[in-house]
Amino acid sequence: MEDQIATQPRLLADRIAAALAQDAGEDPLYRRLARAMRLLIAASEMKNNDNLPSERRLAEVTGLSRVTVRKALTALAEEGIIGRRAGARAHVVKDIDQSLSVLIGFTADMRRRGADGRSILLSQDVGLPTPDEVILLGISPTDKVMRLSRVRLAEDEPGSADI
């Protein structure tokens, strides 16, 4: 298992270098490198919480300077695509934004993004609807409604509360 963890950033460095080599654009090199990494993340070749190769390793495999690599990583961090902490490897950050044009369930969306999604039920009750609920739901005042309060978690981090 330790060997797999150690080789993961090396394999990613090779994939990043290959993606960069395919980009013959005229943009500055740091933008091309950032674009190559962005494309790998979008294609799920780099997944949530994957550790990125070190700046030195990326510079070695791409032939770019560490300053150029650092500038690309900074651009990705400013976009919220990767996370960086002093003394730790940069890593892919979850993108948990959901397009409003496509509606899917929270758990299914988290699974699709490679994250663990779950809910914690805070309360549940059944009773008669309020006047607002009768109007909004188009139901009879004598129909029963169920009310739930829950917190939605993505990778055990609160993402939303449904009350």
From TrEMBL:
As recorded in UniProt, coiled-coil segments are none
HTH gntR-type domain: residues covered = 27-96
Q: Which GO terms describe its molecular function?
A: DNA binding; DNA-binding transcription factor activity
Q: Does the keyword Nucleotide-binding apply?
A: no
Q: Does the keyword Metal-binding apply?
A: no
Question: Which GO biological process categories is it annotated with?
Answer: negative regulation of DNA-templated transcription
Q: Which UniProt keywords apply?
A: DNA-binding, Transcription, Transcription regulation
Q: Which Pfam families match?
A: GntR
Gene3D superfamilies to which the protein is assigned, alphabetical = Chorismate lyase-like, Winged helix-like DNA-binding domain superfamily/Winged helix DNA-binding domain
Q: Which SUPFAM superfamilies match?
A: Chorismate lyase-like (SSF64288), Winged helix' DNA-binding domain (SSF46785)
Q: What is this protein called?
A: GntR family transcriptional regulator
Organism lineage string: Bacteria, Pseudomonadati, Pseudomonadota, Alphaproteobacteria, Rhodobacterales
